[in-house]
Specification:
The protein is 68% helix and 2% strand. The protein has helices at residues 13-21, 24-48, 52-57, 72-79, 88-119, 125-134, 140-153, 174-197, 202-210, 215-226, 228-243, 247-252, 262-272, 277-297, 299-308; strands spanning 155-157, 160-163. α6 crosses α8 and α8 packs antiparallel against α11. By secondary structure, it is an all-alpha fold. It is flat and about 70 Å long. The chain has 15 helices and two strands.
């Protein structure tokens, strides 16, 4: 009996999902969602280049019938010296100084902890993992006051000062923000990375140990290259969270020019200069351009990281 055999059904979850998403209707729906999702950002981009009188009298879509472009909005927002100007250049640098260490520290600590909890046998390992998992349900707001007290007063038990107060001023307060963001990010980071690290083939680990590889070498040469997509996916989440954060930075860094990030200054512009729409649009686009570049540059790793957990082995 001759004939063409039907296509075999995908054997993995990722294969079945990929087959369903490759249909014509799924592609059309994805395009529609992407266009609708992009329209507000596109309108913000157009408005940031329009003159003040046009922004305050007409919608951004009228740009196509009467196109007028100016760079004065960005000039005033980034480098303006007046009280109503954004002066975002220094705040932009502050955001970068806050964000990069607040992403790298949790990535490093979470990767090390995930490997230890997955492949190093020691007493109480499971209880530690359960404790880390449980910390995710603690609201961030509950930890703000104790952490601020820890920075300003130290730790005292029974009148005995175990840890002194940090007493940091000016640019030194960046350390407080790094510490806070790292503490808040570790529970989720350890949980996510542990799921990836624990799924690595056991035969691969045992073969490395037979060859005499130590845990540091296994982690550096085997684990890190294999969990790169997971690290990138978690790094994107953490970067977006820290870059867009207002609460943590405002509490632990203050609102001064030396340490405040972009979000603090944009909140001030929206609250005190809400009628300066042309500067708010350009300032908002300055704030989102870096996250957009980070996401687009790491998009392939982000997708691989999301799919990696759906396939075992």
């Amino acid at each position: 009996m001759t004939g063409v055999a039907p296509d075999p059904q995908p054997k993995t979850v990722a294969g079945r999902v990929r087959k369903r998403l490759n249909t014509r209707w799924a592609t059309l729906a994805s395009i529609v969602i992407a266009v609708v999702w992009t329209i507000p950002t596109f309108g913000l981009f157009i408005s940031s280049f329009r003159p003040e009188d046009q922004i305050k009298t007409t919608g951004w879509w009228t740009f196509f019938s009467d196109p007028q472009v100016t760079l004065e909005n960005y000039q005033q927002v980034l480098f303006g010296r007046s009280s109503s100007a954004g002066q975002l250049a220094s705040y932009f640098v502050n955001s970068i100084v806050i964000t990069l260490p607040s992403v790298l520290f949790p990535l490093a600590f979470a990767a090390l902890a995930a490997y230890a909890l997955a492949w190093i046998n020691f007493r109480g390992r499971d209880w530690i993992y359960i404790g880390v998992f449980a910390l995710q349900i603690v609201p961030l707001q509950m930890a703000l006051v104790p952490l601020l007290s820890f920075f300003s007063e130290g730790v005292s038990v029974g009148g005995v000062n175990l840890l002194p107060a940090w007493n940091l001023d000016d640019e030194q307060r960046f350390i407080q923000v790094w510490f806070a963001h790292t503490c808040f990010a570790l529970p989720l980071g350890v949980f996510l990375l542990h799921n990836f690290v624990s799924q690595l083939p056991r035969d691969l680990m045992e073969a490395a140990r037979v060859d005499g590889a130590t845990h540091p070498k296994i982690f550096r040469t085997i684990v890190l290259p294999l969990i790169t997509p997971a690290l990138a996916a978690y790094g994107i989440f953490q970067f977006l969270w820290v870059w867009n954060d207002l609460l943590v930075a405002l509490i632990f860094a203050g609102g001064g020019d030396e340490t405040a990030p972009l979000t603090v200054r944009l909140a001030e512009l929206a609250g005190t200069r809400g009628n300066e729409w042309q500067r708010l649009t350009s300032g908002a686009f300055v704030a989102i351009i870096v996250p957009l570049l980070v996401f687009l540059s790491l998009q392939r790793y982000f997708v691989r990281g999301l799919l990696a957990g759906s396939v075992k082995g």
